[in-house]
Amino acid sequence: MSWKEIEKELMGRFANDFSGWNRPGDRRIRVRVKSESFSAVARFLAGSGQARFITATAMDTLGAFIEVWYHFDLFQTPQVLSLLVLVPKSDPRLPSITSVLPGADRIEREITEMFGVRFEGHPRPGRLLLPEGWSRTVPPMRKD
Amino acid sequence: MRESISLEGMHPLFQGGDLFRLTVEADRIAALDIELGTHYRGIEKLAETKSWDQLPFLLERICGMCSSSHPAAAVRAMEELGGVPVPERAQYIRTLVCELERIQSHLLWFGTVGHNAGFQSLWMWTWKYRERICKVFETVFGNRLIPSVFMAGGVRRDIEEETIPWMQESLDRFQPALDLLEGVLTGDLIFGIRTKSIGVLSEEVVRKYGMVGPAARASGVAVDVRKDDPYFAYPWVDWNLAVRQEGDVYANAEIRLFEMRESLDIVRQCLKQMKSGPVRTDLKSLPGGMGIGRVEAPRGELFYCLVGDGTHRPIRVQIRAPSSANLPALEESAVGADLDDAAVIVAAADPCTGCAERMVVIGRADPFQRILAGVELVRRSHRKTERLRDERNGTRIGADSADKN
What we know:
The structure holds 2 protein chains of 2 kinds. Chain A is 23% helix and 32% strand. By secondary structure, chain A is α/β, with parallel strands linked by helices. Chain A has a single domain, classed as Beta Polymerase, domain 2, CATH 3.30.460.80. Chain A has a 5-stranded mixed beta sheet, covered by helices on one side. Chain A has a two-stranded parallel ribbon with strand order 6-7. In chain A, β1 and β2 form a beta hairpin. The longest helix of chain A has 11 residues. The relative contact order of chain A is 0.16. By secondary structure, chain B is of the alpha+beta class. Chain B has 2 domains: 86 residues, no CATH class; 200 residues, Cytochrome-c3 Hydrogenase, chain B. Helices cover 50% and strands 14% of the residues of chain B. A 4-stranded mixed beta sheet of chain B has the order 3-2-1-9. Chain B is globular and about 70 Å long. Chain B starts with a strand and ends with a helix. The chains are: A alpha/beta, B alpha+beta. At the A-B interface, β3, β4 and α3 of A face α8, β6, β7, β8 and α12 of B.
């Protein structure tokens, strides 16, 4: 299956879950995904065999949400697909994709430590980078 | 008997301090757990306090081995964010620097694998030849390992025309190193025994963890940012990508040797093809938004995501180093291996914790567990090589005496 076919199928299956599909340059694709449907999209991409999970970027832009961008390398194209999921600061939870994409294990734990986003269903949550017994309640990369 | 061994301490095996917890059953590895956190320096946070112009200086200090790949990926992200044009000569110089860095990093790999496998002369020879590459950096850019060449919009230093013949001559003088390594790979039986079918990573595991770089290419997965998302002067030079299927330490060695030959060729082409001209465009400011930059560092894809808000500095710098992608698979591939081979397997995985953690030492060993310094594991590996040598010599003596009889 080529990326063109995958793109078509993605748009067909998840049309109501995507918003703001845009291409900043010919090698980048960015789209916002509803948080409840993100794990289904991740499962689809993992199963397609045409995308490799690179990493996730979390950031605090001082609004009501934490932005989490999931980046995928698309095979046979020079493109990177970045999926944006917004996580409300009032209830920072996201479904874990580690069971589908084992490469997401450490970055999910890092985002939990640094931004306080809980990944539900993560197989081995826990300390990663911060010292044991870190007692501050505000995660260190949060700006509020 | 099942016992747990914590491996820690500063040792060339790790190129950085970290904690490897090995669970061993009858001298075979039953589980490996790599604990990060010993190197955490908070560079992503620190980067938010630097201006766009200062950023490459900080980033090139993340890792001594990939000191050019980090700023290279960052300037790619900045240029994507701001749509900054880069002069052709600058692209050639950038490519040249990245490839020289690849050669010295791959030589370091041969050195650490050779040392851990009990080949001390291989270690010393690779260090000697690596110095010639460092000398090129020092002479042309003023520093052995951190050349500070990269800036958004071009390069900080041009290469003077009168230096080019000296550089070409230095590259010619470096050539014997590659022939020496070729001789080790093809001619040394013990090196073959210590590396073939050791630390095998299957294509399935590589795809499962999204591994990158030479480790992925040694297992049949042709991923290379230089081909997949071409950048700098790579589209303008001829070079080939090596892929092997075996996935063992030997295949990793073959891939790296091939890549060093290609890198040398790329550097020669860059020196030949680059024409005189400007080497930078002035960067006034960067708009708000996100820029993604990725380059093929010596260990694989290095990924940067930079976010700006239109001011003079970034509001978020995200770094995904190749070791972050490759280390989790090591936990799986090391299971079942002989403890005597652990030092070779770990060195071959090329763990670069400075990169992977971007991370102050936290002692975390359980007092009831056995603490083994990396050096002890290396000694076990050395004893295995000595045993193999003795056996081989014994066989040869036996065969000789059989002939005489």
